[in-house]
């Protein structure tokens, strides 16, 4: 079990910036001991604040290592009861889009989330009857927020989202009176239709005036500048079973969403919800050197980067990978592939892996 240490000063800063009507953190900051219920309430409160567009970057700046857990909590709320809450879905999409450029966790989460979630602009598909049946909260997202978020998703991974969503309902938004909606929509359609820079410029001039194009560019630049304040590393530290789990300012790994796991302070997604006693942490003795290497590996996994582990035979390279696979839910034999290479490996034989086993095929080496 790990203890994740939350900076009380960071929570205090968040508490001071949040509107009093949304501020539940202050009552917990005054407590000397945090019970398990207190810790859950704090994490749920932070997850809800993450969906407030005015506080998304504030939460991300001070609690970046916990972003994945907060996103997973909100995803569970969106799909509670097997039905999509369109209000929460839209708010999550807008918040998530703001995190794409500064958090690898957000990028990986978006790829998983939209596999079975509707597009950001789902409301454009609704008939008037369907739209009236949707229940929105008091802070319903504006269409300009949704189209701005849509553009950020496209800019982060154009190939994926271009093919994933049906863009036909967006065309009608080129005629709306809202300049921001027209501008964001035009940029989206330019990306979706593979326009060249010259074609895009001509297209934008047909949809927007010169002043409107300039205003839109200034708005986008302001968003970039806000994101740049997230250059720090956040304010969450970790420790391995060295502190009382009821100490104020700390949450333990058991408090996190069942869809994530903390590995030496790095929160990673799980392929399946965590089950009690599914993984025994004592399978790997977490001495200081092992923790350092495991944390480095976890950071690389969180960044979606390939990793090369070097070391002599028997130093623990395979053990690290197997432990990482186990704690992240990759427990099936087919989910971790081992290929033994040595001096006797024939370079003229290509080795490919197919579902169900290995397939050897001869190839010509020039």
Automatic annotation (TrEMBL):
Gene3D superfamilies per UniProt: P-loop containing nucleotide triphosphate hydrolases
Stored InterPro entries: P-loop_NTPase
Keyword flag 4Fe-4S: no
Alphabetic keyword roster: ATP-binding, Nucleotide-binding
Gene Ontology biological process terms in this record: ribosomal large subunit assembly; ribosomal large subunit export from nucleus
GO molecular function, one term: ATP binding
GO cellular component, one term: nucleus
Descriptive protein name: ATPase dynein-related AAA domain-containing protein
Organism: Acanthochromis polyacanthus
């Amino acid at each position: 079990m790990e203890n994740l240490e939350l900076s009380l000063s960071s929570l205090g800063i968040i508490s001071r910036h949040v509107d009093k009507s949304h501020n539940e953190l202050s009552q917990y900051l005054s407590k000397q001991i945090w019970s398990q219920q207190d810790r859950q309430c704090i994490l749920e409160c932070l997850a809800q604040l993450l969906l407030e567009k005015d506080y998304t970057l504030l939460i991300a700046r001070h609690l970046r290592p916990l972003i994945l857990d907060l996103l997973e909590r909100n995803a569970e709320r969106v799909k509670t009861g097997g039905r999509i809450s369109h209000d929460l879905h839209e708010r999550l999409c807008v918040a998530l889009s703001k995190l794409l450029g500064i958090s690898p966790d957000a990028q990986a989460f978006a790829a998983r989330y939209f596999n079975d979630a509707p597009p950001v602009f789902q409301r454009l598909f609704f008939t008037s009857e369907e739209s009236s049946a949707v229940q929105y909260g008091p802070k319903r997202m504006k269409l300009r927020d949704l189209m701005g978020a849509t553009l950020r998703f496209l800019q982060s991974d154009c190939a994926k989202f271009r093919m994933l969503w049906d863009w036909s309902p967006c065309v009608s938004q080129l005629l709306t009176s809202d300049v921001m909606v027209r501008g964001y929509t035009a940029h989206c359609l330019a990306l979706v239709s593979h326009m060249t820079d010259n074609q895009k410029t001509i297209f934008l001039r047909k949809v927007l005036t010169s002043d409107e194009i300039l205003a839109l560019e200034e708005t986008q630049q302001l968003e970039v500048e806000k994101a740049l304040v997230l250059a720090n590393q956040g304010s969450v530290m970790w420790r391995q079973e060295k502190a009382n789990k009821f100490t104020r300012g700390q949450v333990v790994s058991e408090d996190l969403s069942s869809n994530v796991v903390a590995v030496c302070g790095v929160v990673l997604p799980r392929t399946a919800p965590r089950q009690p006693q599914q993984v025994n942490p004592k399978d790997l003795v977490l001495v200081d050197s092992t923790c350092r290497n495991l944390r480095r590996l976890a950071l690389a996994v969180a960044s979606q980067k390939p990793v090369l582990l070097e070391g002599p035979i028997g130093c623990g390279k395979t053990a690290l990978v197997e432990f990482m696979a186990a704690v992240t839910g990759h427990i099936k034999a087919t989910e971790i592939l081992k290929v033994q290479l040595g001096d006797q490996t024939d370079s003229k034989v290509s080795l490919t892996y197919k579902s169900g086993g290995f397939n050897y095929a001869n190839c010509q080496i020039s």
